[in-house]
Structure formats: structure tokens, C-alpha cells
Design brief:
This protein is α/β, with parallel strands linked by helices and 379 residues long. It contains 14 helices and 12 strands. The protein has a 7-stranded mixed sheet, with helices on both faces. Strands 8-9-12-11-10 form a 5-stranded mixed sheet, with helices on one face. The model has no long low-confidence stretch (mean pLDDT 96).
């Protein structure tokens, strides 16, 4: 079945007793047992809830994985994945990554003895050199990265990981399973901030994990149930509803993003544009090889850093806000917002500086978006 059909049918007629087209919201914490020793399959909503189960089944099908797990946020999902590691373990992590992910490694897990090396995972030689025999347990990859949109060759990275007996974990938030399916390339675990493109309307916090193999499913399932960072039934329903239009939204969003990136690339007030749909982007060919599109998030540098604040304050159609992936176009200032918790010296080393702006492109008419940027950039 094609992915567009799977998406449109997300949660369709899961309640066989009534034939409801939409999955019901099972707003219950617990379930009655018919008799002693007899269960309906549902006992307690932390362990399993029918609404969340419908979402988890769809996520697993979309990513072509063994099992899906829905969490209360993207960070809760990443936390669950990291909890399978032990003190003394070592991970290699993309150096240009979301600030919240950096924070959880540095402020939450390092104190428990988990060590991390940050490398440009698009540079396989650097990743190879960072491996510590007997200690490195996983490579954690963002591709595209946030916010500099670096592209890692997943096939090569996964092959390197396998040859060294380590797991590959891929944050697929920017691409979604509509455009990129890392598990099909051999990755072991995929994570998502479902708050972004999966939900798609900036109205629900959620996270997701999908595992490739049953043994990993058992591990993550135990952690999800024992620690309890699950997604509630109301929010599960909202993500199910959002998924139904994912294909349509992403197609329009990346069409707009391509046009905006091309316009920015010709603008004399812009120093550099980071978008893999541009042929000059260093990851353009890799992205073509491993994905069916270029996504809808881009970043750009203005020639004078003082213009960044002016653009932010002047936009009218575009909204100045954190997050990404919704139908509305958002502009973000990474150095102050999404990456504010990263130390200055590390931000500057990776290129997250005060001249950088990030755009999450929505579904508005592209002429309105370009016109808004144009007027905001006027001197």
C-alpha cells in the first residue's frame, strides 16, 4: 500500500464494535476485567491505551518498523532511547543538532556516566576516528541537522556502525517517513518530535520512537511502560488526525521552501542559504539518493547580523516563534531560542551565530511569504 493511502487511513475504523470512522478517544486510566484472570487486552493506560495504540501502529507502518511508541514529547522519546544505555557507554552524536538534544546529553545523561563525542556525521572519517572500541554503543544522527541542514549519508553511516557493532539512531523529524525512511536503509531506531510535521498544526506536543528489530522493541517497550512518559489519548488522537494530511502538507511546504531558498540565494542581503534542494548544497546528491524530497526547513545568513533582529521584528505574514513543521511559516533565531542552552564557544564552532535565521516553511501562498521577507529586508 502506498504511503499516501496509509496516511489518509490513519486510525480508520479501529473500533470494530461501532465502525467509527475516526478512532475514539479512550479517555480512561484503567479498564474493567470481565473476570478474575480474564483481560480484554487492556489493563492500564500507561501500558496500553487503544487510542495511543492506533497511533503507534500507524507510526510503525509508516517507518516500516517492528513497533512504534508514542511519547509525551520528542524529548521524552529521546530520553527513552538513551535509557537503554549504561554508565561507561559512549555515543557519537551529530555536532550540529537541536539544542534540546544537546542539553539532554550534557545536563541529564552525562552525570550518569554516559559519554558523548560530537562529530560532523556527514564526515564518515571523523565518525570512524571517534569510535572507541568496546565503549561506543551507538551513533545518533540528525539528518538534515538543525539548524545548518547538513546531510549525512545514511547508507554509509549505517554500514560503518554495523561493521563496528554499534547501533544507529536517526532523528527523522525534519524529513518524516513520507520523505525518508532510515529503517529501510538499515538504521536500528528512528525518533521523532511528533510536535512538528507529524502533528502538523502547532497544537500538540508528542514524540515517537520506531524500532527495527523485536529485541529493541522489547527494550523500548519496557522503558516506556516502566518510566511512563506516554502520550495521552487526546493528544494521540490529534497526531492521528494530523497524519492524515501529512503528504499534502509536506508536498506544498517543500514546494514553497524550494522557491524561497532560490529567492534567498539571489538576494544581495543574504550571505548563505542552507537548503538541500539547492544544487550547490554539499548534501544535495546524497539527499536525492536517500530521500524522496528536500523537506521544508531552511536556514540563511544575513550579511549584517544586525539585520536579523530587524527581519524578525518586521515580518507580518511569517510568525516569529520556536518550533517547526506546522502549516504556518515560522521564523526562528537559533542563537537565542532553540540553541540558547549550548555554550557560546560550541555554537560558534558549529556555526550557530547571530547572523543565522531558520525558516519553517508553511502552506501559505509562496508569493505572500517572499513578499513578506522582501519588505522585512528593505533598508
Amino acid at each position: 500500500m502506498q504511503i499516501e493511502t496509509i496516511l489518509a487511513h490513519a486510525g480508520l475504523c479501529t473500533d470494530q464494535t461501532t465502525g467509527a470512522i475516526s478512532t475514539p478517544i479512550y479517555q480512561t486510566a484503567t479498564f474493567r476485567h470481565p473476570a478474575l484472570g480474564v483481560s480484554t487486552g487492556y489493563d492500564y493506560s500507561r501500558t496500553i491505551n487503544p487510542t495511543r495504540q492506533a497511533l503507534e501502529n500507524v507510526i510503525a507502518e509508516l517507518e516500516r518498523g517492528d513497533r512504534g511508541f508514542a511519547f509525551a514529547s520528542g524529548m521524552a522519546a529521546i530520553t527513552a532511547v538513551l535509557m537503554q544505555f549504561a554508565s561507561g557507554d559512549h555515543l557519537i552524536v551529530s555536532d550540529d543538532l537541536y539544542g534540546g538534544t544537546y542539553r539532554i546529553f550534557e545536563k541529564n545523561f552525562r552525570q550518569f556516566g554516559l559519554s558523548v563525542t560530537y562529530e560532523d556525521t556527514s564526515n564518515l572519517e571523523a565518525v570512524q576516528n571517534a569510535l572507541i572500541p568496546g565503549k561506543t554503543k551507538a551513533i545518533f544522527i540528525e539528518t538534515p541537522t538543525n539548524p545548518l541542514i547538513k546531510i549525512t549519508d545514511l547508507g554509509e553511516a549505517i554500514a560503518l556502525a554495523r561493521s563496528n557493532g554499534v547501533l544507529t539512531i536517526v532523528d527523522n523529524t525534519f524529513m518524516t517517513p513520507y520523505l525518508q525512511r532510515p529503517l529501510e536503509l538499515g538504521a536500528d531506531v528512528v525518533v521523532h518530535s511528533g510536535t512538528k510535521y507529524l502533528g502538523g498544526h502547532n497544537d500538540v506536543l508528542s514524540g515517537a520512537v520506531v524500532t527495527r528489530l523485536p529485541e529493541l522493541s522489547e527494550r523500548i517497550g519496557f522503558i516506556q511502560n516502566s518510566t511512563g512518559g506516554v502520550l495521552g489519548p487526546q493528544d494521540s488522537w490529534l497526531v492521528l488526525r494530523g497524519l492524515k494530511t501529512l503528504a499534502l502538507r509536506v508536498e506544498k511546504q517543500q514546494e514553497n521552501a524550494q522557491k524561497i531558498a532560490e529567492w534567498l540565494a539571489q538576494n544581495d542581503k543574504v550571505n548563505k542559504v542552507y537548503y538541500p534542494g539547492l544544487p550547490e548544497h554539499p548534501g544535495h546528491r546524497v539527499q536525492q539518493k536517500q530521500s524522496t524530497g528536500f523537506g521544508a526547513t531552511l536556514s540563511f545568513r544575513v550579511r549584517d547580523s544586525s539585520w536579523a533582529e530587524r527581519i524578525i521584528n518586521r515580518v507580518k505574514v511569517i510568525t516569529f516563534a520556536e518550533s517547526l513543521g506546522g502549516v504556518e511559516t515560522l521564523i526562528t533565531y537559533p542563537v537565542r531560542q532553540t540553541h540558547g542552552d549550548i555554550p557560546v564557544e560550541i555554537r560558534e564552532k558549529t556555526g550557530v551565530t547571530d547572523d543565522l535565521l531558520r525558516l519553517s516553511v508553511g502552506i501559505e501562498h509562496v508569493s505572500d511569504l517572499i513578499g513578506d521577507l522582501e519588505q522585512a529586508m528593505e533598508t
